[in-house]
Every structure is written in C-alpha cells, then in structure tokens.
C-alpha cells in the first residue's frame, strides 16, 4: 500500500515576541532597524518555543488517523505544516494526492458574499471545476442545512452555519486526503452525526483522513489509528483504543494494573492488605475494552490473621466522578471468619452495561458492622480503563452514532405486541 502522508523530523520553532512580515510600512522598517541597533549594545536573548519537535510518521492510503493531545500539544501546528499554511523550521512533509482541509471556522469564506457565491468561491480554491460545483450545489446546501439562507451574505450566519457550509464544500470536494481540525464541535449533534458518517464513508472508500479532535469517543469510533502529541512530540502511535486509553489514564494518573510488592507499604491494617488490582477482558490485561463483552476486575489481597469475615468491594465511576454503581461479593464464603492467606477475587461487569468513555474503579476490602460497612483496606481510582463501542450495530446503541448520556447504557430486553 502506498503512502499518502509522510513526515520526517518535522519541527516548528517560534520566537516569542518577534514579528516578521514579508512587507510593512516605512515606520515598521525604521522600528525594526532601531531594534536591531539596540540589540547590538544590549545582551538580549529571545525566548524560543518548539511547537513541534522531530515529528515523524507515515500514513497509508485509506487510513483514518486521529491526532489527540492537550491544548498546546502541537496538533493544529501539525495540520498547518501539512497544508503548507506555514513552513517547518526543520524536517519535511510530503502529501501525495488531492487535499481538502478544514482547519478553522469560515475557512475560505468571504463574509460579504452569499452562501451560494461562497460555495463556488471555496470550491474553486479547493480545485473544483465550475461545472462540478454546480452539479453538487444542491447536495452541498442540503448537507449544510442552509437552504433558506443560501442567498444571504455569510456575515449574517451563525458560527455553526459558517462551519457547516465550509465543511459541506470540503466534504463534497471528494479529495483523496481530508484534513480536519476541531471545528466540528461548533456544529449541533445532528450535523456532527452527518460529518462523522461522511468521514466514515471517506475511509471505507479508500480515502485518507487525518482528524484532530478532543472528543475521545469520536476518535475511538472513527479512527483505526491515533497519534498522541505532547509538548510537540509524538509520545504514542498505535490502535486508537489503546492510544485514547493511555491519554485518558495519564490524565487520571492510573492504568489498568496496580501492584504493591511491599506488603508493609500496601493499603490496609493489621488484618488485611490490598496487594493488586487489575482490569482484564478475554483473559488479557486491558487498557481499552469492548463495550459488548464482560470486563473482569481482579483484586488480590492478603489476610494476615484470623478475624472477622472480609469481603471485596468495588465502586465504579465515570470520568466526571459520578458513581455508576457499587458492588460487593455477597457469597457465603465471606460470611465466615476469613483465614490467613492470599486471595484473588474477580468482579465481572457484564457487557453492554457501562457507557463509553473513561471508567475508574475504587477497590476496597471490608467487613460488615451492621448496618454499616467497615473498610480495612482500599484505594481510590486505583485502576481505569476506556470503554469503546466499535459501532457495528450490535450494542445497546444500535445504529445510533451519537453519544448516550449517563454512566450506564444497558442493553435491555424489549417485548412488543399489538395493542
């Protein structure tokens, strides 16, 4: 398979406080000359920052790749380099194929022109022939949802209408490579659904998509691969589910496994100590899990001496810290005094229960001091994992492509009969 996008050692450096223009007024020229003369007599160091540093990757034709990272990580700078809006300080990038890009609201739109006129203007800038634009005009306007305002100057459009029309032109341009920044957040839920569907169609038709977004669920659903940027550098590149899980877990400060090798440093008291907590799916340690299949939370602990009955307990929370549920093992084996030794308890969370996104787990070892629970050992947000829906229609979301609200999303059994 041939390469669509290749970056080798791509770097971009900026000087803070420095302004370089290709042309300017006489006053600007005199001011710059005076500034240079003053610098000769004063030791002055410009502060420099690297927006991107030694970024290298290859994207094959037909790949749908997401780029994620915190604000200021270098995502938009990368797209600007790829689209030749700015030039790299070091390194090089190659794009093989016709490119369509949407990097900010109103890209290529003239505020004084009508929506119809901007479609022809923007399409021409993207390389479309007038006949091709005219043929697709109705589809573009319908996709953008601006039929009533197509002959209104776009300066009177809302920001949402602006971006819908701009994306509609880029989407119907049918480029071989589509570069999209986080502009889709401006659109409403219905428009975002259309955009995601369009980009999925691009990927399925063999076109290449590079998509920057802060919506991790969208990245996990839409992209097969993701690139994580941090401080202008590539810190992870791989399957989207794994990269998204790593990114979210790094912000939470936990992963899918926590072990205490030193029993004296492990959480607990003189009765019991928590030794390990792990997340598994299909028998393997899992940072990212399929929403449709069961997830195992394994809790290892050591009982130090005979005493009251000890039982394991978990609390499952979503990214906002809302409690999805509490659960404890109510089996008969935990109703008698627990004997000293090492134990491994497993809590099975059924498939199609949790909602998509980051899930964290509190683990504890408790005894019952009726009517209250008495915790002997525990750790908050000890492990975490990312729940993802492959979007194949056999989950609780069915063919709906939007995001369900709530911390759980069960697949219920439904019956229906004629009244």
| Spans of at least 5 consecutive residues with low confidence | none
Structural class: alpha/beta
Q: Strands of the biggest beta sheet: in what spatial order?
A: 5-6-7-3-8-9
Order of helices and strands: EHEEHEEHHHEHEHEEHEEEEEEEEEE
Describe the sheet with the most strands: 6 strands, mixed
Distance between the termini: 57 Å
Shape: globular
Instruction: Give the fraction of residues assigned to helices.
Output: 10-25%
Structure commentary:
- The protein is of the alpha/beta class and 419 residues long.
- Helix content is 24%, strand content 34%.
- The chain has 8 helices and 19 strands.
- It has helices at residues 26-41, 75-82, 115-126, 130-144, 159-172, 189-204, 216-222, 240-252; strands at 3-15, 48-60, 64-68, 90-95, 99-102, 177-180, 208-212, 225-230, 233-239, 257-259, 272-281, 284-285, 288-290, 295-303, 311-318, 323-328, 341-349, 357-369, 372-388.
- The strands form 4 sheets. A 6-stranded mixed β-sheet has the order 5-6-7-3-8-9, with helices on both faces. Strands 10, 11, 12, 14 and 17 form a 5-stranded antiparallel β-sheet that branches. The chain has a 5-stranded mixed β-sheet with strand order 13-19-18-15-16.
- Helix 3 (115-126) crosses helix 5 (159-172) and helix 4 (130-144) crosses helix 5.
- It is globular.
- The chain starts with a strand and ends in a 31-residue tail after the last strand.
């Amino acid at each position: 398979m041939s390469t669509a996008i290749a970056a080798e050692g791509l770097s971009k450096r900026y000087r803070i406080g420095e302004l370089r223009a290709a042309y300017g007024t006489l006053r600007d020229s005199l001011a710059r000359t005076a500034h240079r003369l003053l610098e000769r007599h004063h030791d002055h160091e410009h502060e420099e920052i690297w927006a991107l540093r030694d970024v290298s990757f290859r994207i094959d034709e037909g790949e749908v790749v997401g780029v994620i990272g915190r604000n200021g990580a270098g995502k938009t700078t990368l797209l600007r380099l790829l689209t030749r809006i700015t030039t790299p300080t070091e390194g090089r990038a190659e794009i093989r194929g016709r490119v369509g890009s949407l990097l900010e609201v109103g890209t290529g739109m003239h505020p004084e022109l009508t929506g119809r006129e901007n479609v022809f203007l923007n399409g021409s800038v993207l390389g479309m022939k007038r006949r091709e634009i005219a043929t697709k005009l109705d589809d573009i306007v319908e996709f953008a949802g601006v039929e009533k305002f197509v002959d209104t100057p776009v300066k009177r459009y809302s920001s949402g209408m602006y971006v819908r029309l701009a994306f509609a032109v880029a989407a119907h341009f049918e480029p071989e490579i589509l570069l999209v920044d986080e502009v889709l957040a401006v659109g409403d839920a219905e428009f975002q659904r259309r955009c995601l569907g369009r980009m999925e169609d691009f990927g399925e038709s063999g076109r290449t998509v590079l998509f920057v977004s802060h919506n991790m669920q969208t990245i996990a659903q839409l992209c097969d691969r993701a690139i994580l940027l941090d401080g202008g550098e590539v810190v992870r590149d791989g399957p989207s589910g794994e990269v998204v899980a790593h990114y979210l877990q790094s912000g939470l400060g936990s992963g899918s496994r926590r072990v205490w090798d030193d029993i004296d440093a492990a959480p607990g008291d003189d009765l019991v100590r928590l030794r390990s907590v792990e997340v598994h799916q299909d028998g393997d340690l899992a940072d990212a899990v399929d929403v449709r299949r069961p997830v195992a939370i394994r809790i290892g602990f050591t009982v130090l001496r005979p005493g009251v009955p000890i039982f394991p307990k978990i609390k499952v929370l979503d990214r906002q810290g809302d409690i999805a549920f509490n659960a404890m093992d109510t089996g008969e084996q935990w109703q008698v005094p627990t004997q000293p030794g090492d134990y491994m308890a497993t809590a099975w969370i059924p498939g199609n229960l949790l909602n998509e996104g980051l899930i964290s787990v509190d683990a504890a070892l408790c005894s019952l001091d009726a009517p209250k629970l008495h915790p002997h050992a525990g750790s908050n947000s000890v492990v975490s994992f990312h729940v993802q829906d492959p979007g194949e229609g056999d989950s609780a979301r069915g063919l709906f492509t939007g995001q369900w609200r709530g911390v759980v999303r069960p697949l219920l059994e439904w019956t229906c009969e004629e009244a």
